[in-house]
Amino acid sequence: MEVIHIERIESVIVDLPTIRPHHLSMAVMRNQAMVIVRLFCSDGIEGIGESTTIGGLSYGDESPEGMKLTLDTYIAPLLQGKSALSINAIMALLEYNIKGNNFVKSAIETALLDAQGKRLGVSVATLLGGAVTQTLPVLWTLASGDTQKDIEEAQALLNDGRHNTFKLKIGRYDWKHDVRHVSAIKQAVGPDVKVTVDVNQAWTESVAKQGIAQLQEDGVDLIEQPIIKTNFDGLARLTQYFKVPIMADEAAATVTDAFKLAKIGGGSVFALKISKAGGLINIQKQAAIAQAAGISLYGGTMLEGTVGTVASAQVFSTLHLDWGTELFGPLLLTEDIVKGRLTYQNGVMEIPQGPGLGIELDMNQVEKFKRK
Q1: How many domains does the chain have?
Q2: Which of 350, 355, 357, 284 is nearest to 321 (CA)?
Q3: How many angstroms separate the CA atoms of 87 and 229, rounded?
Q4: Is residue 186 part of a domain?
Q5: Where do the Mandelate racemase/muconate lactonizing enzyme C-terminal domain residues begin and end (predicted)?
Q6: Which of 258, 338, 262 is nearest to 305 (CA)?
């Protein structure tokens, strides 16, 4: 019997416009650049995946241009002719031959899972053991940087029923200014609406103690990655010092990170992201570590487009996420590259139920937004 093999892998960078600038502590995003991976198999089945990062190299050590270079120069030749059926074997081969580059590895694993799901007529979630839900709670990030604009945006979304939890990106300004900004929004939306804060590593430990103390007093519900990701011990000290939950995001990147943090109590919540973990299967490993240590889970995003968002949703649907998700990336886009946009309503996202990822690229749109 002929073994189904990988015939070729293609990658393209697409630049999609966004509804507004998105302010992070280290950068301002004015559009979203994503690397789309197409994996073609000898049985005629195509799998798709996505590598997306935020803020270029100001956020991490992978950029869209670098990811495409790695895919085209190193990964595509390495995987050509290999069996498309053993995803574990392919990922082990990548791990041995390609150091780091977790964002790219996640896209390859996604494409392999998508192809295998299509081949067998089942969803990616089914391949991963089965979904426990067909919808996921999704918060909305208020990141205009303007307090009044953020309040108006939050109230409009609450009235519309689309979201009932909000996250604020802070860290670009003096901590006192940022805390006043957050507290004003929390007061405006009221005690029944959850408000979380992402500092994106911007504070020192001493500043974090002052800032978190005030945020805790003002009723903010969750503090995400207040200090530099490498300061595991500092994260543990903050977790033990405050009642408000502290979430490890950039610090809890890999399975190894999750183990080290769980061991010292660095964070009472872990943010799971398929890109930083190097794939969906690693997310389940991280989740197992967290659950064994009594650490809650949250479904994070790198502001992926629809392909990466659905890949995340497929694995998140197999887990119990105490803090829901922030899979709102596609809602930031004014246009998309897939046929049929995702449904968001009543504070949740509906997960596509078809084979594989359950979505299909619109090649006319891919061509329109492809970086020339």
Answers
A1: 2
A2: 284
A3: 30
A4: yes
A5: 147-245
A6: 338
